[in-house]
Amino acid sequence: MLKDATMPIFSPDRHACAPSYVKLTKQPIAGGTYRPLANDEDSNACTPSALSGHHGSKLYTQKSAIHAISDNTSIFISGAGTLPCLPEMTSSGSVSKDVIDNNNQITPSKLQPQQPTEQPLNEAVSVCKKAAHTTAKTLSAAGHAVAKAAKTTGHAIHVAVTAVKTAWHTFTNFKAVQLIIKFFRKAYGPWKKRMRFSYAFYAIVFTLLTSAEVIFLQWGVYSEPTYDKGDEVDQTTKILNSVAGQVTKFVSQMWLEQKSLFLVNFVGLGLIYLALIFVTNRFWIATLLFGTAITAFGVANSIKIQLRNEPIIPADFTFISGGDAGNIASFIPDNSQQFVENAVTVVIWIIAICLLLFLLDRRKCFIYCSWRKPFASAKNTVGTFSRALAAVVSVVILASYATNLGTGGSWSNMWAAKQGYTPTLFDAAEDARNNGPATTFLSLAKAPTMDKPEGYSKQKMQAISKKYSKLANSINKSRTQQLTDSTAIMILSETFADPTRLPDITFDEDPIPNIRNIMGTTTSGTMLSPGYGGGTANIEYQALTGLSLANFSDSMIVPYQQLVPTQSNPYSFNQIWTQKYGESGSEAVHPYYQSMYLRNTNYKKFGFSHLYSLDSATPVEHTEKIGESPYVSDSSTYQDVLDLIKNQKNPEFLQVVTMQNHMPYSNYYEAEDVLQSSVTDDTPDDEHSAINVFSTGLKYTDQATLDFLSQLNQINKPITVIFYGDHLPGIYLKEEQNPDDSFLLHETDYFIWSNDASPSANVKLDDSEAAFSSSNYFMSSAAEHMNAKISPYLALLTKLHEEIPAISRVISNRGGIGLGTATYLQSDGTVTDSTSMSKTQKQLLADYKLVQYDQTSGKNYLKESDFMSVD
Fold it and tell me: What region does 262 belong to: left with phi over 0, alpha with psi -120 to 50, or beta?
């Protein structure tokens, strides 16, 4: 059939077995099909085996055998032509010769069913191939780009290195440089063979430096004595009482009195030194760190003793962790600047000498060890083990010594006691003078809060709760007001105290005439302060919580730093308002930095919604100052309080701590405004000047307070103000030497006042109830002044105030009162002690201690009752 076709056949002859093609005239595509053709003459030549030889591949069909029909040979057959139709194609696209010869007519419809299955598969394969090809091409291009970039970079580096090498060779070829190189080459041999300092030399340096630091710390806690002109004091006595004489006595008492307190301090510092040596494993680096740190500690300790009459304690380091180091530095007085500069010079010399010795000493490691090959040999193994063990043991011994030194009956406490150690931690400054600053500091590393009172149990606390609930109900029967119906403002006026109270000091005018007049018309009196020259946070803590430092252990120096941060839910009186009004029930204002004494975290624990300070999220708005003073004035602070009151929607508790009269007392004010005082002739000029500046600040506070109360009278809301001074400033150097003035140095002033819109306006409690007080009683006294109902806790404080008007842990001033851990005043202001109290007083005091222990160290059983709730 195919030979009779009229269409010419085109047969390429490039390959012997290439298939023949029939060239057909153009026909319309519609209605036609393609069929493959084969050349009969070449059918035998183009067998599968021959194709395999040419193409290196095999052809397969789905069912029938493969025939020598080229897939590349096809013919278009019109739908109306005379050629028979092709049968259904296989998936390979070929048709067998037998089928064609049989002339079985196949219509186009018979080809269609196979296409739907074949086309999507082919299309998917095609897409995948294209994607793979594109990806490969992209990766190839990226690889070439990276390779090119790497080559370029490498070339640039090579060029740069070559340039550097050329420059270096040019530099080293100079004759002067060659001489220097030759010198160091010759010196390198001897330098490499330099000696290793002996351990005996290390021991000598260790002993001398530790002893020097003990003496330096001790020297910093003493001060030169002052003498009246009429006093007849021989030269020997003056020498012995001088700073040098006191330091000499501290050291020599090892032989004269068999009190080895110098040794106790030496051991304490020595353990710190050893820990640094073994941890760093570098003797001279540890010496540098130890000398620098202890010298800086001694300088700071001396300045704090001078300004606040207390040494540095471990809790003070919360200032540094809170970011207040710079703020503390601003408290350094002018007369200490030279001392600080000299200390800096000493530190620079220590650093320089230690670095030089470190370079000269060929022994780099105090204990030989190899971290790179720790177990390569027996020597390396022993060295590595010894180095790690020494570091761990030294730290453990130091921690054990420090944490047990302040605990009676412990190994370090008993050893120190045998050397003459007698702690007086209720007066940390005196303890530092007697026992050494290093020992005082280490003994406070672990501070027990409070000794467990006898009989403490859940049943006992439940009985106390019932007892004072009955007392509260009895008191509340005659009271008609609620505390939460009024706004209460508790103002701690920084360093406010009547400056005319101390003897030998008189003024041409009264520094506080307005406050003195206010105190005469409202509830007021004298407050017994536990601090002199410092301790603001302690007085504030007592006022907010109703707890007394007198009940704590001697080592609990600053609850704001040692206790409150560890408590989960401490109680404070502002919670009376927050329990009723929620977050809007209490706010605080302190025009300084919020982290001082950790107020930002402590106030949050107490439940204050906001603390407005210089650096708070919402800072105080009014920051005006007086003259050259670095502190915000009281009038500005009062204005911030007035703004809060005007914007409040409900009564609240406002805690306010001022800063205007904080130390130091430099020439801040205009000369014509400074008050002039008359003092005894033997008062040092520095002390006299400080007293005048301090009293001038009180004059500004006096006027600002009068203006503040006058503005509160214009507000048609019931408001009660609790105003008190925290302590006297530590500027009365002469009075500090006189035991008879101890009580006067711990007296400040307070008053409780209500505005005209308050039901308690013009109320003045009798002096028998208010003449003497301590800050832990202020809220119970305010409730009595306001005729307000109270909680069982306030009932306990009310009754306790009636029986023991003032309780405080007064820090003694080298004699006089306060030689124990607690001081109690009777109603006439005289000092009493617990042994001479009545049965009622003793029982109230015992109950008070149980309540305080339950809140701070115990199980907080009272939280389960209504002991703190006001009905």
Answer: alpha
